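WARN retry 2 of 3 for item q-0093 after timeout on previous attempt; input resubmitted unchanged.
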Amino acid sequence: MRVFFTDQFVLPLPDTHRFPMQKYALLARRVSDSGLVAAADQQVPCAASDADILRAHTADYLARVKHGDLTAKEIRRIGFPWSLELVARERRSCGGTIEACRAALVDGVAVNLAGGTHHAFADHGEGFCIFNDSAIAIRALQADGSIRRAVVLDCDVHQGNGTAAILANDPSAFVFSIHGAKNFPFHKELSDLDVELDDGTADDAYLSALEGGVRYALANAHADVAIYLAGADPYVGDTLGRLAVSKAGLVARDRLVLECCRTAGLPVAITMAGGYAKNVQDIVDIHFATVQTAAELFG
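OK item q-0093 returned
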């Protein structure tokens, strides 16, 4: 199983912005130290090119991101101060999802230890997301003929509004999102299948709703590859999640999604998406358990 990592450094961010990002370097170190993945299979991906990004984003938006011409309002909407380092990191994160999809087509599963930036729209970013890695990856693989159709299985606690908008009315991509009904984004886009959950939803109700949604998505997507956003933020201890799923429940979630893909013979690329627990080690534990489950199921 190949694993692609982006962060083994700390971005030059103010302390108030650093906490959503620090999990990535800690997770990469945890995977490396665990021996779970062979050293040769831990790879730094190539950065997504302009051509890759322009299949999902407008030329004007890409140019303004590249040159630091975003307005103060746009930067506040994204949630990070602009820097060349941040743009480089986001390009490489998108490249990680492209390469994870390609590796999954060969090996059955692969993991990007970043990605899941599902709030990025074609012409703007928001919610800690600048470029939409799922849409970029799907269109990259379609462009080179590797796939015809794809399915996004978005299990972040927040709806993947950017992904839904970019891939709207696209019969070659099926977007499934299971998320908090009253959580961000407060204006939801229309995915191919949205499953909305009440605040406080715990393990049993969550897993029941998830199973129905995943089975429907796979049956109707007729996909060649799946992108699974394994967000850590449905966790009961997440500061932005508003659900009540335990760590054990999230392991069961990972197993359910991945077993459904394996049974369907569907290659799956996993991305990490969100996680905002007060203790960053809880986030790392949840993401690492996802990697463990993938390694166990796909060998």
